[in-house]
Amino acid sequence: MTSFAPVPGSGPDGSPGIPESEQVAPRDSGPDQPTSVGRLNQSIKASIDRWGAVWVEGEITQWNRRGQNVFGGLKDLRSDAQISLQVWSNVLRRLPDPFEVGDHVVACLKADYFVKRGSFSFQVTSMKHVGLGEQLERLERLRRQLQAEGLFDPSRRKPLPFLPNRIGLITGAQSDAEKDVLRNAQLRWPQVAFRTVHATVQGERSVPEILAALAQLDADPEVDVIVIARGGGDPQTLLGFSDERLVRAVAAASTPIVSAIGHENDRPLLDDVADLRASTPTDAAKRVVPDVAEQRTLVGQLRSRLTMRLQQQVQHGIQQVEQLRTRPALRDPDRLVRDRQQEVVLLVSRGRDLSTRLVDRAERHAAELRASLRALSPASTLARGYAIVQGEDASIVRDPAAAPAGARLSLTVEHGAIAAVSEGRADP
Q1: Range of the domain at 62
Q2: How much is the pLDDT for 160?
Q3: Are 262 and 161 found together in one domain?
Q4: Is 43 within the bounds of a domain?
């Protein structure tokens, strides 16, 4: 849908350009009579200005804002042909919608040739959306499919080793990405070891070569982590890192994969399936190996903390021992015996006095009981001259009738018993 509207030659401000009589023609120049650069550029500009405006359909591949203006790129939908665009601030304010990389658009372009620099570009005078770019739409469908299959699930990501034995690196030969990864990794850990496999990182050969390199490194038992690195680029050159074959191979790899494509505006699908996404190759080097200086500092800090903790424990133990030593029982152990000895003497004395009083009291009580018993005892009565009369059956005779004449009696006196025969009742 390309059409040109021829217009008369004009300058950038609409004024007439160089007259045809003054324009450069092949017959006007030669080795002895060369034309000037300025006249050549003016002639080219006058010729280009006659092209007029043209409407072009394509896909936005770059859209970079610089101040109030935009510098971008437009790609053909069916080939690799591309053109550069410039959108000035006054045109940008009139555009009805925001635009971004991947948008399918039609734009009204005006060719412009900068005389001072001898450069050529297209200025956008109008632009509108047609729909998502074909490539972006295809990538979005693939992204949704892989996400539904769980390939982007964070739980399936493998952790990176703290200090890998060997790092696998897939990148372009003699590329800045390779130099950045190697240099920064060695600065952080000088003994780090790499196994680098070079591969094409853009174009049709990129995906097969990256797949072969990935299979080679994933099968190496010495490789603990694999870095796929490239130093950025526009979305068109990064399409290989969104290829379904590569994405599925990375998801199936047994070795942790780090994606270091270095493109922030549009994330290739490799970033979503990798075990770790690094913003740049330099960032990847910092993420896969620790900093030896930081680790030494950390070890020093831990040793210092451990030493301080041990010193605190020892000091605390010394203070506890000192506190125990200042206690009276440990400062003067004999004092405890002496104090208890005095208590024992007092207790023994009290016990002796108490025992004596108890014995005296018991003796007095016994004497009283003995006196009472003696006073109540029949022996006392017998001592006063009385006698106890018992019959033959040993019963006590209390009535003369119980001892008739001729009855045998036994008379108990103070010092013994007397046998007697009753003569019967005696007259008083």
Answers
A1: 20-132
A2: 93
A3: yes
A4: yes
Q: Give the model confidence (pLDDT) of 394-412 as tens digits.
A: 888 888 888 888 888 888 8
CATH number, residue 234: 3.40.50.261
CB 124 within 8 A of CB 85: yes
Is 116 among the domain residues? yes
CB atoms within 10 A of CB 62: 18
Taking the CA atoms of the chain, what radius of gyration do you get in angstroms?
62
Q: Convert the pLDDT of each residue in 105-138 to its tens digit.
A: 889 998 888 777 777 888 899 988 775 556 677 7
Positions of E strands within 16-154: 53-66, 69-75, 82-87, 103-114, 119-132
Same domain, 197 and 267: yes
The first and second tokens of residue 39, run together, are: 């006249």
How many domains does the structure of the chain reveal?
4
Q: Which residues of the chain have pLDDT under 70?
A: 1-28, 131-135, 234-236, 263-266, 427-428
Using CA atoms of 185, 187, 189, 192 in order, give the dihedral in degrees to the nearest 10.
Answer: 50
Task: Specify whether 407 is located in the same domain as 335.
Answer: no
Q: Which of 389, 385, 416, 419 is nearest to 402 (CA)?
A: 389
SS3 52: coil
Verify that 83 and 171 share a domain, yes or no: no
Separation CA 180–CA 297 (nearest Å): 25
- Provide the whole-model pTM: 0.48
pLDDT at residue number 111: 85
**171 with 36, same domain?**
no
